[in-house]
Amino acid sequence: MTKFIGTGVALITPFHEDLSIDFEALERLVEHNINNGTEYLVISGTTGESVTVTADEKKELIQFISKVNNGRVPLVLGIGGNNTANVINEIKTTDLSAIDAILSVSPYYSKPTQEGIYQHFKAIAEVSPKPIILYNVPGRTASNMLTETTIRLAKDFDNIIAVKEAGNNVHQYLELLRTKPEDFLVLSGDDDLALGVALAGGSGVISVIGQALPKEFSEMIRLGIAGKAKEAYKTHFDLMPITRLIFSENNPAGVKAVLEALEISKSHVRLPLVEATGTLKKEIKNALKDLGKS
């Protein structure tokens, strides 16, 4: 589980203007992160526009990122949904040989009860050959996986090793940290709260902005885990404007605009998402200039 302490990043899927996958840009992004301190990479999360990436494209992404990575950092693969049987089938039929863990989102849209959420993850845990990171993101799923449910799952299944908590709820983070089993990891899914969670005893973050600024963000999280608040908050304050900007319209349009300004990839997204506006792109360029990134 120490593989997942520190900064993981939810990789975007770069696209060409015709919205086909830009594998050259993806290679640049992977190298940018590995060479600048990111501890692990997450494939096909929400930030990767997983809902508009086809099954065949997802296989291509797994194969390509695995090849570029070549075992250098751990890889986490997003496999989740609100059809439990389909999630189980995808786990059973996906080549997971290069994958170190599965990130699985709490069922969205259906709004199951807490017992329904528990039974969903129980069914997944019973078939998964890889460790599981739970993913709670109420703003997208329309239901909150309560602390009690997360802890129940953590205690009942040895292969459920962590939760990516993204409810932007400080109290829920603290309750998780207070009541979790000793070896269970609490990972922030909120870039703006990640440092505070690390300082409170969390194990790190699965970040969006971290993939654009991996050196700064990963060092900040390492300082936070080490309890070096003063040094860590200096970086946190520096990164606050850009972190706020990338979520001001939609994710991943914001971070794609950052990566375009850094000349790593283009800002194209697939519908129903739309590109960052010209106004936001200008604000992002100004924020990067303030960080000495232009």
Number of strands: 8
Structural class: alpha/beta
Task: Describe the sheet with the most strands.
Answer: 8 strands, parallel, barrel
Strand content: 5-15%
Shape: globular
List low-confidence stretches: none
Helix content: 40-55%
Q: Numbering strands along the chain, what is their spatial order in the largest sheet?
A: 1-2-3-4-5-6-7-8
- Termini separation comes to 37 Å
Per-chain topology:
Layout: E1 6-10, H1 23-34, E2 40-43, H2 55-69, E3 75-78, H3 84-93, E4 101-105, H4 114-125, E5 132-136, H5 138-141, H6 147-156, E6 160-165, H7 170-179, E7 185-188, H8 194-199, E8 204-207, H9 214-225, H10 229-246, H11 253-261, H12 278-290
Helix pairs in contact: 1-2, 3-4, 4-6, 6-7, 9-10, 10-12, 11-12
